[in-house]
Amino acid sequence: MKADRLVGILTYLLQTDRATMPQLAARFEVSRRTIQRDVDALCRAGIPLVSTRGGGGGIAIMDGYKLDRRLLSPGELQCILAGLRGLDSVSKTSSADRFLQKVSARGESPLSPDSDLVIDLASFYRDSLSEKIELLRRAIAQRELVRFHYYYGKGEADKRVEPYCLVFKWSDWYLFGFCTQRQDFRLYKLGRLWDLAPVGEGFAPRPVPAEKRLFGNQMRDDYLVTALYRPAAKYRLVEERGPDSFSVAEDGRLLARWGFAGPEEALSWFLSFGDGAEVLDPPQMRERVRQEAEKIAARHC
After folding, report:
1. What is the DSSP letter of 206?
2. What is the pTM of this model?
3. d(CA 132, CA 138)
């Protein structure tokens, strides 16, 4: 909807200070002409937007402007504030404080800094995470290739990637980009990504296929495994799939038949329970768990 997009553009400019027409068009997935009409509509609504040309130019909100809080409801303002504070938790900026200043007009009581919604996107390696996010945001804005050393299940490798966006998903931060070696779009978990640096080489943005924009939501989980779990593991089953995802067997253990992305994911899941889970079916997975358990036991003799 146009109204939602107008609020989105305004919020984005409050957060980033300045953006180009191509950046806004790509972010909101519309044409540059549509963005120009949106900018004109915001100006007619009394939002003082200024446009500058040349390097470092773009569209920005005039310095010192105080946003008319009547454009948004108190609940919407608090949600925006909570979101900005969440971004501040992994950034060296203070977007939330700047937003508070812009929506607090002279003579009015400021928007309450307290909220019933707290978003903390940081982790135990907050400092390095913030540095990665700041560097990647600059590279994305400047369309500059990055390089890094990446660790994954099959080993490790040096990567050269065209960065397109940062994604917070599955409780982790990821870089979505085009791998120049694999010639494909990939997600890279920031926690496995180290020695990050810009290459000093630009790139022309590629069209992103619609299925790649799902960021892994299309991953299948059709590798079905039936297992019994000790009652003490109930909290993990509830956390993973919900309280209706299992039943109670006659011996009190918890019976569940779940789908996994593949055998390796399933194996890691069951080994994490130690002797607290027993695979019933398929026989191949039951055998894999037995073999891995014997290897572990042999190492600890």
Report:
1. P
2. 0.64
3. 10
